[in-house]
Design a protein that fits this description.
This protein is α/β, with parallel strands linked by helices and 433 residues long. It folds into three domains: 195 residues, NAD(P)-binding Rossmann-like Domain (Rossmann fold, 3-Layer(aba) Sandwich), CATH 3.40.50; 89 residues, N-(1-d-carboxylethyl)-l-norvaline Dehydrogenase, domain 2 (Orthogonal Bundle), CATH 1.10.1040.10; 132 residues, NAD(P)-binding Rossmann-like Domain (Rossmann fold, 3-Layer(aba) Sandwich). The chain contains 17 helices and 14 strands. The strands form three sheets. Strands 3-2-1-4-5-6 form a six-stranded parallel sheet, sandwiched between helices. The chain has a six-stranded parallel sheet with strand order 11-10-9-12-13-14. The structure holds nicotinamide-adenine-dinucleotide. Nicotinamide-adenine-dinucleotide binds next to helix 1 and helix 5.
């Protein structure tokens, strides 16, 4: 099949590459000229494990192309995916200007039947808006389909190639048939392709992300309670997670969820609910808990340093919002850095992949280390903000030699608390005695 993907970011690049991997001819379109130039030369623009190899293979075999021209990119495609940003607007609702802007442009250039697919996370009713925006200028036949994306950054290629499920909101047989054929190679093990109406598909994505965010905020509240009652959240987690109805995943407390999806999708669903006169109370609490949790370590740190962080120097391990990505959107580490530097402290950080992105946003406000150990030089304490695997079993002897004082604030519960305290560290984590 010939496919066009409009928007070549985390979702667009992974989707385009993985569609090419099963033999489709894919053109990815982006307005960012530098990005298109780099990708056309075979330079990958995001860090995503396993992506580069598949990207290069498909680029070299001529199945993957990049362009800045929407017209050229969609000309031969039978399916056009919109993988465009849907950032929060001023009131928190999803801003559809990118999606509707491209839909309007498509209306002016379409010449034959195509399926236009919303892959971006968009509020209920967007498929109808996209349809109207195209129909305003194009009088020929076309269908609009909602096909939300569930990939996780860090394991995006695997998620795309072997999705737990594919959700397709479509109302014509012609569009359903094309979408079913496109996804068939990805669900050969029998995972479901679930066809539904467009509105239900749109809501499915928000409900999924909001439910996962709820699980995280719930466990963060349980952790708060553990700290006050002297219970151990790790034990509680294992105790409840072995119940099939609850499940083991997404029960890890920490310093809050971040990233480009959960915060904005929770906000957008609250706003969508308000627009139809419904007060989605649980989600407001989920958001509120997360806001507080991002700074949960700060009072602990302040108390340890007797209310005076001025002149203190901190090492931070981890800047990305989660491991195995360079994505720093809404990363809890950035909130910590802001709070520490405003209190007069200095910070040296290390992250295996995300440092260039952080530099792009906050520049020289902090210093950047070339290794996790270099970051510790002369630090009054180490703060762990992201659970990269390489931080889990560090060389404690090197750490001891580098840190000014043996103090660790662990926002991701990486270490065995007893063991590390026996080694002479002052150690504070989340929800553990
Ligand atoms: P992104 O910011 O990484 O990528 C968006 C791309 O669109 C950018 O490269 C940008 O230059 C490009 N763009 C903007 N306007 C354009 C235009 N008019 N024409 C062509 N290109 C244009 O965003 P993302 O993380 O890939 O997310 C895209 C959508 O997918 C969002 O709705 C998001 O909520 C959703 N989503 C994201 C993830 C994720 O893990 N990142 C997962 C599932 C769903």
């Amino acid at each position: 099949m010939k496919i066009a993907v409009v928007g070549t970011g985390y979702v667009g690049l992974v989707s385009g590459t993985c569609f090419a991997e099963t033999g489709n001819k894919v053109t990815c379109i982006d307005i960012d000229e530098k990005k298109v130039a780099k990708l056309s030369k075979g330079e990958i623009t995001i860090y995503e494990p396993g992506l580069e190899k598949v990207f290069l293979r498909n680029l070299n075999e001529g199945r993957l192309k990049f362009t800045t021209s929407l017209e050229e990119g969609v000309k031969d495609a039978s399916i056009i995916f919109l993988a465009l940003p849907t950032p929060p607007g001023a009131d928190g609702s999803a801003d559809l200007k990118y999606v509707l802007g491209v839909a309007d442009h498509l209306g002016k250039i379409l010449t034959d039947y195509k399926v236009i697919v919303d892959k971006s996370t968009v509020p209920v009713g967007t498929a109808a808006k996209v349809h109207a925006a195209i129909a305003a200028n194009y009088k020929g036949e076309f269908d609009v389909v909602s096909n939300p994306e569930f990939l996780r950054e860090g394991v995006a290629v695997d998620d795309f190639m072997k999705p737990d499920r594919v959700v397709i909101g479509a109302s014509t047989e012609r569009a359903k048939k094309l979408m079913g054929e496109l996804y068939a190679p990805y669900v050969r093990q029998g995972n479901p392709v679930i066809f539904m109406d467009e509105k239900s598909a749109e809501l499915t994505k928000y409900a999924a992300n909001s439910f996962l965010a709820t699980k995280i905020s719930f466990m963060n509240e349980v952790a708060q309670l553990c700290e006050r009652l002297g219970a151990d959240v790790d034990m509680v987690r294992r105790g409840i997670g072995s119940d099939d109805r609850i499940g083991k995943r997404f029960l890890f407390p920490g310093i809050g969820y971040g990233g480009s999806c959960f915060p904005k999708d929770v906000q957008a669903l609250i706003m969508s609910s308000e627009e139809v006169g419904y007060d989605f109370q649980i989600l407001k609490a989920v958001e509120d808990v997360n806001e507080k949790q991002k700074l949960h370590l700060i009072p602990k740190i302040t108390k340890y340093f007797e209310n005076n962080l001025a002149g203190k120097h901190f090492a931070i391990w981890g800047l990305a919002f989660k491991p195995n990505t360079d994505d720093i959107r809404e990363a809890p580490a950035l909130y910590l850095i802001k709070s520490l530097t405003e209190a007069g402290a200095t910070v040296t950080a290390f992250d295996p992949e995300a440092m260039p992105n952080v530099k792009g946003v906050i520049g020289d406000k902090i210093t950047y280390a070339t290794s996790q150990y270099e970051a510790l030089d002369n630090a009054d304490a180490l703060i762990i903000a992201t659970e990269w695997a390489e931080f889990r079993t560090p060389d404690f002897e090197i750490m001891e030699a580098k840190l000014k004082t043996k103090v660790i604030f662990d926002g991701r519960n990486l270490f065995d608390a007893t063991q590390i305290r026996n080694a002479g560290y002052h150690y504070e984590s989340i929800g553990r005695p």
